[in-house]
């Protein structure tokens, strides 16, 4: 994902801003390939996996008991 | 209430459906119907347009949107469906992909000119709540377009359909979109020649 995407992303739970942590960029430096998006309000953490932000609420992620 | 209105079941269902989805899909939702639906929208300048495809799945609707705009923001809950879309468009191409929940969108208020969703509403647990989320992320005056199934009688899923999906008519669609706060709500029936009203397309606008 592009870093500029942060301007329109928010926490799916409380709609507050997200902060980027532990970002790794591709060779050109214009795409984030991994990192974590952290909600500035509730602290929920959303991983960036191979450049795709996983913004599923925690109850819908893989491995979550039904 | 269908069994897919439980999201865990929806996830498992899609894991298996994604292996055959593009083969099933043309029977109920083809390129001609997609073109008809796209013609109902007013797209801004292709370079600047902010367009979101909710429940993009394997990317059939996304491909149509890319005929009108340079970039599409796309969201789906299912990694297995998205894998097919990645194969079509690449992970770092004209589509900005996100995994997420239609009912709890991870996008800021007043962001998009157009929110599109085809073949997704039938799996939403609470359609009005999801449509309210669409209205929230639309700019004032922005357009929503949702394609969903009407009557299962003429689809290949006819036996299962009623048990697992939401079906609705134009009265129900009208109620849902107006309750969610949309204005200028209009409905069009679409389908292949042998079944011309298999899909209902609803458009509306977020209030100015």
Secondary structure: elements and pairs:
The complex is a heterodimer of chains A (about 70) and B (about 210).
Chain A: E1 18-25, E2 32-39, E3 45-49, E4 52-53
Antiparallel strand pairs in A: 1-2, 2-3, 3-4
Chain B: H1 7-17, H2 21-28, H3 31-38, E1 51-54, H4 60-65, E2 72-76, H5 79-89, E3 95-99, E4 112-118, H6 127-137, E5 138-149, H7 158-164, H8 170-179, E6 183-190, E7 199-205
Parallel strand pairs in B: 1-2, 1-4, 2-3, 4-5
Antiparallel strand pairs in B: 5-7, 6-7
Give a structural overview.
The complex is a heterodimer of chains A (66) and B (208). Chain A is an all-beta fold. Chain A has no helices and four strands. A four-stranded antiparallel β-sheet of chain A has the order 1-2-3-4, with no helix packed on it. In chain A, a hairpin with a 2-residue loop joins strand 3 (45-49) and strand 4 (52-53). In chain A, 23% of the residues are buried. Chain B has a single domain (7-205), classed as Vaccinia Virus protein VP39 (Rossmann fold), CATH 3.40.50. Chain B has eight helices and seven strands. In chain B, helix 5 (79-89) links the parallel strand 2 (72-76) and strand 3 (95-99). Chain B is globular, with a radius of gyration of 16 Å. Chain B starts with 6 loop residues before the first helix and ends with a strand. Residues 23-27 of chain B have low confidence and may be disordered. The chains are: A mainly beta (66), B alpha/beta (208). The A-B interface holds A 1-2, 5, 7-13, 15, 26, 31, 46, 50-57, 60, 62, 66 and B 6-8, 11, 50, 73, 75, 77, 79, 82, 91-92, 96-101, 104-109, 111.
